[in-house]
Each structure stands twice: as structure tokens, then as C-alpha cells.
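Posted in: Structural Biology > Protein-Ligand Complexes

Title: Requesting predicted complex, histidyl-adenosine monophosphate in pocket

I'd be grateful if someone could produce the C-alpha cells for the following input. Sequence and ligand are given below.
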Amino acid sequence: MIRRIKGTQDIYMEEITYWHYVEGIILDLTKKYAFQEIRTPIFEATQLFKRSVGEYTDVVQKEMYTFEDKGGRSVTLRPEGTASIARAYIENGFINFGSPLKLFYVGPMFRYEKPQAGRLRQFHQFGIETLGSEDPEADFEIIDFSVNFVKALGINDFQLLINSVGCEKCRPEYRKALKKYYSGKLDRICDDCKKRYETNILRLLDCDKDREIAKNAPSIHDYLCAECSEHFDKLIHLLEENDIDFTIDESLVRGLDYYTKTAFEIKSNTLGGQDQILGGGRYDGLIEQIGGKRVPAVGFAAGLDRIILLLKKEKIVPGDKEKPDIAVLAIDEIAKKESFKIAEYLREKDFSVFIDVVNRNVGNKLKHASRIGAPISIILGENEIKSGEISIKNMNSGEQKNIPMKEASTYLMGMLKKKKVGN
Ligand code: HAM
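-- Reply #1 --
Done. Output follows.
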């Protein structure tokens, strides 16, 4: 048997209701905050990710799905969305749309990681990006959005962690200080960190294995230049003024190289293991770094697969939106033809209607209607058609009643307690 690839998933039945629930909240919030959707390809030139995410990051070093296409080009399944947004910004001249430009995206991302609960090889992100503002107000809006997104999902037990990772001007001095601090401790750090010491020293701060050593490392806040420091202070004030709870986490450095100034994450307190539900920050140099003008930007991305795990864990149940309102069960040939007309009529009245198109007896049809969760079945036979009535069965109480077709819509609305206009 051919099986799906490790670290991927089929999403169906009950599961899909969670996705529709989350996607509904995304569409609602992005509209409220006036962010526009952008859809970019799921594969890009490999060079894009090397130059933006960073040659020495884990993502580029270990996790990319990179292959040569039949034309001999090196292409990569996108491991994240921000690099593509930056590329699209330059390529399509988004600068002409004015600043700030506020975009959002939803879609699959690919990282060759060790699969476990909440960590997949094909996972899904929802991300937002504000391009063309260097002001802390833009960072604030992104963070405010992220908090409201998590709350709108019904998740309340979480922490917002925030830090500054400095900029191209002040980070070199900080790197030097870290090098000095770790230089006498190389025999005590893990093998990965030994490599990172040479290539990506900031990442030593957020290594789970070397937490104790990181505790006494120099703080970036002692090295921030005046501009970064002022930016951070203003952001903190905005968060405080707007009653957004946060914790400053000096070890938060993020796994991607393009960040400047603000870095933040939201972690669930109940998820355990893979507890980071979203992360983001400012990336003022990225667009320039890949060939555009200097366009300061800030954004975040949330892991939807992880969020859905969390919703289940917290017993947040999406509604019954996916279940049909009514199942139409035609029990003979005349009724079969009529059933499509009746279904059509009911759909026009805004009911969701499931027609049973399998030839079987009424008992089995009712069994299936109940299995798919239809609260009402309409049973149609030649007799009903001739008398201009339909037989309506309440699947919960078992009660069955014949109703003239003309009154059906109002009657069904009453049963479903729906407010619909017209009949
Ligand atoms: P990231 O922290 O690498 O940031 O990913 C964002 C979120 O994607 C994580 O918080 C996590 O929930 C989810 N995620 C990452 N890897 C996996 C995985 N293997 N399986 C399941 N979920 C995963 C970024 O990708 C940046 N582009 C965010 C950003 C946008 N920064 C600025 N703008």
C-alpha cells in the first residue's frame, strides 16, 4: 500500500471543522484590521531562502526540501512565508502601492524536521506582514493582532514573550561579547552549539540543552544602540498603555537570520512539547538584502496545525457548521426525480441539504442521515409527492410529521431555530 509521506497529514471529517473554524477567524480578523491576502508559489528559487532565512540557520542547513527541476534549476519548497513576501514585494513593485502595505497569507510550508506532535514536515502557517514602516506603532499593531488572534480562537492560557535582537549596527559588538563569554565554555556546550559558536552565535542563547550556561550570558540590552533601544522602549510603552501582558525574554533570538530590533513569540502554557504557537518580529534589512530598496517591515506567522492540537487539548469545539441541516431521502423512482427539485428549493432558502444518492431501503438511509449528523430528514415517496406534502423527521426526537410543501420552509426554519427571511 502506498502511504502518505512521514510528517504530512490527511485532513478530513471532524478534523476539517477545526480548520474551517480557524480559517473563519483569520478571514474575520484580517478584514477587521484591513490586511489584504497574498498568495505566492509554494516553491521558489533555493537562493531566496539561503539569502533571506540565512545560510547558517537550521532551516537552511538541515530542513529544506531542495531539489533540481527538469530544467536544472535548484528549487525549494518554501519553509516559511516572509522571504516570498519580500521577493514578491520587489518583483511586483509593491512599493508603488504606498506604505504601509499590510498583507496576510495562509498556506502549507515544508521543513524536514523530526515529526512529532505539533511538528510536521508539511505544516500550515497563517502570517501577516506590514511593509514600509519603521515605527514601533507597526510592531505594536502586529503584536496586538497576534494576541487578539489567539484570544479569538478561545485560547486564554498563553504567554507573550518579547525581546530586541538589535540591528546591523549594534549586533556585531554583542556577538563579540557572546564569543568572549562562550569561549571558555566550549567544552560544556552541545555539539550543535559548538558549530553555532562559529556561524550563528546568538542561537546559543535559546538552545534547550545549554540553558544554564545561557543564563549568565551578557544581555543584548546592554549593547543595543540608541535607535534600537528607543524603539524597544516605545514598543513596551505601547503594550503597557494598551494592557497587553508580556514578558521580556532576553534569550529570545528566533531561528531565522533576517530579524532586526523586535522579536516576539506566543507560547501556550498547556501544549507542552512544541508550545510556540506563533512567532515574528521586525526585518528592516531583508528586502534590501535580496535586491530591493530599504523597506522596513514587521510581521508574524502562526502554526495552524499546532493551534488545532491546542484547541482539541483545551476542548474548544468548533460549531456544527459542517453538518447538513437536512438530509433528503427519496425512497422510490418518482421521489428520486422530485428530490432534486425540493433540495434546490431548500438550498435557495439557505438550508444546507444532503441528498442520499445511494439506492437502499429507508431504514439504511435514515441510519446514514444520522451518521452524518443531519438533525432533520425529509422522507419522500410517491404518496407524499402526489399529496403535495413532505414527511419531516426530527432525527433527535424521532418525531415524524407530514407538512404541506408550501409550509415546509417556515416549518424547517422553526425546527432549526434559524432566522431566515421569506418563504
Ligand atoms: P517561525 O517561528 O519559524 O517563523 O514559524 C512560525 C510558526 O510556525 C511557529 O511558531 C510554529 O507555530 C509553526 N511551525 C514552524 N515549524 C513547524 C513545524 N515543523 N510543524 C508545525 N508547525 C511549525 C516564521 O516562519 C517567520 N516567517 C514568521 C515571521 C513572519 N516573521 C516575520 N514575519
